[in-house]
Structure formats: C-alpha cells, structure tokens
Structure prediction request, 313 residues.
Amino acid sequence: MTTTMSDLYDSRTDRGAAIIARQEPVVYGDGAYAKALSERQLDAYASDGFLMIENLFSPGEVQSLLDEIRRMSGDRAILDREETITEPHSDALRSVFRAHELSPLLNGLARDQRLLHVARQILGSEVYIHQSRINMKPGFKGEEFYWHSDFETWHVEDGMPAMRALSCSLLLTENNACNGPLMLVPGSHRHFIACQGETPPDHYRSSLKKQEYGVPDPISLQLLVEQGGIRAMTAGAGSVVFFDCNAMHGSNGNISPWPRANVFMVYNSVENRLGLPKYGLAPRPEHIAARRNDAALAALDAFTMSRAGSSVS
Prediction:
C-alpha cells in the first residue's frame, strides 16, 4: 500500500512503523464549551491523555445497569445479533456493540450529563455516539485486548478525520490488579504510531475478537512506555475513566475468578464526522462506526433507573 502524503496520520502503508507528533489540541477551545471538569482535572487529562473519576455513579445506579447487562447477556435476540462478539477461543461473551441502541437504559446513560458534559467540554462542541459497547471479561475465560490506539483504527478503517473523540469507561464491577483492568500509557496521546501491515477486507470480523492489524510495533511501544510508564485503571464500581482517542491502551487476560464488566461510550465531535475509509476499504457496519445516527445528543440530568426489560429494535 503506497503512502498518501496529504494524510497527516498515514498508517498501514509501505512506509513501515513511525512515530508522528499529534497535530491537534487535546482539550479543544480551552475547555470553555461546557462546565463539568475543574481546571485541575482538565490539566491532568491534557497531560496524561486520561482522567479517572471515582464513584461518579451510585451503587444503586450501578446495580440497575448490571441487572440490565445480565438481562441482555441472556437475551437470545441480542446474542444472535452481529453486534455480539464472543471470545476468540470460547463462546464466552466478550462485547456487545451498539449497546445504547439495544437498551433504553443504556441509551439514557449515553445522554447522562455526568458523561456528556465532560465530552462536550473536552471536545469543544456538541457530540454524538460514534460507538458504544459492553465489554465483559468473565472469570478464568476473559482474554486480553492488545495494545492499540483507537484513533489509528478509526482513522484508517472508518475515515475519522482528526483526534477529536474520546472514550469513557464506566466500571460496573471492581476493576482490580487481577481481573484485567484497562491499562493506559500516560502521554502516549501526543504521539501517533503508524502501524505496519495492509488491512484485509472485513477486518472487523476478526479484529473485534483479536486485533492483529493496527497494533503498534514493539520498538515504538517500548519508547512510549519508557517515556510515560503504564498505569492500570483500578477502582471500584461506579468509577469512570475518560481517555483520549489516541491514548495507547490495552488490558491483560482475566485468569482470576472475578468477572469484569464495563460499559464504553465513545463520543465524537459533530465537527469530526466520518469520511471515507482509507485505501478503498468498505465502511464498517453502523454498530461499529456510526454514520447515519450521528445527531448531537441532548443531555439528561440522570439516566432513567427504570428497567426497560426489552431491546431497542
């Protein structure tokens, strides 16, 4: 695959691996678009590329969400959908995508002002859900998520123009040192890692189970870690991690008996909607990269605590 000189963040070309300086802000508009985080919190996010807020959701809210996820995990209509991903070497549930459209409760969570206003403040605009998912790591069977930058994949495979998106992970169970917590490399968001290897067609069918393209080479990863270290996002249920789309992250497998369950909401700026994927790749399905459902979200004071008991079609 030949290199396209007009693209600031060429990746998966014949150029090979490279480390490219970030060209965009981390916090847009000096964080003045909305009020959610303090100046100290914004500075920490800008410096590290992520921010942990502990106990942002109450035990009752967490329990309501856990009950909904357990319901969804036993709903054959959901388990049989393309949005549901199992572990690469077992039938254990790994992820459920488009979670905010499959559950009214999670749809309300996506609009909860505790999440939405943070995204609006950091991204400096109105936002929409680029992707949502439930990530499960069952005890003994939960496999790893290898190191990667989300933006590298979203830029190449989805045509996301700029680093103006973020993820938030709401911890629904304790994430401890033993059950495969999210790990982040502080400061890595300031460096784009151009990866090696030409992307095969329909790459998402295998990458959602185990990603092999769009992962950093060992030398680049080592340089990032030597500079910033690795920080494990261990905290109790109800805590939330916000992290930049270009932050290098991954997680170990879970060989402990303690399951791990998190809900991810990916917010993208309405000024950063998707273009065409690179290199003539076909667009990935809507449940992985939203193109049609990209309207700006209206905030709710708090997500509804009622148990819907039925999926969104």
Remarks:
- Residues 9 and 130 are 20 Å apart (CA to CA).
- Confidence is low (pLDDT under 50) at residues 306-313.
- The first helix runs from residue 39 to 48.
- The radius of gyration is 18 Å.
